[in-house]
Amino acid sequence: MILAPDDAGRLAEMVAAALADGTPLEVVGAGTKRGLGRPMQTATTLDLSRLAGVTLYEPAELVMATGAGTRLAAIEAELKAQGQMLAFEPPDYGPLYGRPAGEQTIGGVLATNLAGPRRIKAGAARDHLLGVGAVSGRGEAFKAGGRVVKNVTGYDLCKLLAGSHGTLAVMHSVTFKVLPVPEKARTILVFGLDAASAASAMAAALGSPHEVVSAAHLPAPVAARSAVDFVRAAGAAVTAVRIEGPEPSVAVRCAALRELLGLRGPVEELHSSRSSRLWAEVRDVARLLPDADAALWRLSVAPMAGPGVVEAIARDLPAECLFDWGGGLVWLAVAATGDAGAAVIRRAVDAAGGHATLVRAPEPVRAVVAPFHPQPDGLAALARRVKDGFDPRRILNPGRMAPDL
Predict the structure, then answer these.
(1) In what order do the strands lie in the sheet with 355-360?
(2) Rounded to an integer, what distance in angstroms lies between the CA atom of residue 334 and that of residue 369?
(3) N or C, fewer C-beta in 10 Å, the chain?
(4) 264 touches 193 (CB < 8 A)
(5) Of 246, 271, 286, which closes a domain?
(6) Domain limits for position 144
(7) Residues 267-323: pLDDT tens digits?
(8) DSSP 396
(9) Could you read off the pLDDT of 116-143 as tens digits, one per residue?
(10) Are 45 and 148 in a shared domain?
């Protein structure tokens, strides 16, 4: 059964009816992230795609409000017409799961707290969410936040809902910050570095006064899959750092970074469309993967620890990797057999004090391997208490993040 409310009132009625009947609901926008998390065991889908449209846009105030089911492509098109953007650079994981690009909704992006390569400068999706209208698993409608940051007082429920994967409440409307598109963007490439040297180079760039907004490292096999000619034809690993801002400032900082990084290896510079295309590839990941059937892990570690973690994994498990966020985010592609490398990967990540998320794997694997990193007992108990407060009967995306959540 598919339930498709067309306004907030009807949404509240549907959730209340499901609560009364004890009917579990799978909450979806466009359904592009159904492969993220544990497989859903529900017979009823709550489809939010009709809760769409821009309800407020004030370019001068850098704020927009939309229905949660609004396609991200429509939002970005309207922002582009005004020279503005979503600064957290949300990735499109649809193609990772065999869906066309451009289908995802703003509600899905915020519910999963997704952010792209600019995250190290601009912050996560939750840092741009100002206000939300939602219905909890108790069937109670509520609003949180407002149109400006100073409206957020008391409990910041916006931060709580961002990243909850629809397990606490169903968002029907969202208000978020937007920012002007930078006047100029350039990317400095350094060729031939190994992972440890690349981590050191990225740390040097990020620690410099030159305001680097993104830093990534593509090992040679990954770089060879890029659509950007300078990257694809390098025949070596490619380390990339991006800077943005007014054109004179970018030119000066670019020259300084070339001098700084040129001591570590040959350098090249990407402008305009080439620069944008490279960071879109890093953001969305799919094009750079070895094959569409590989299991995909997302490792979060201390930036300088990333190469060591990958080396420890590679001793026991064939894998390809891509480093983003200055090395703090590692994408790891492995064979989608057995436990998809979970035991090896999580052992290495635990030793480094990080966590690992299984972003893509066949459903039978996700049914037995926890996609989200197991939480310490105290944190898991806190998560259960929060779930009890919002959705005590476990009707919203039950089991999506953990068996009891």
Answers:
(1) 267-271, 184-191, 238-245, 212-218, 320-324, 329-334, 295-300, 355-360
(2) 14
(3) N
(4) yes
(5) 286
(6) 2-180
(7) 999 998 999 999 999 999 999 988 888 999 999 999 999 999 999 999 999 999 999
(8) B
(9) 999 999 999 999 999 999 999 999 999 9
(10) yes
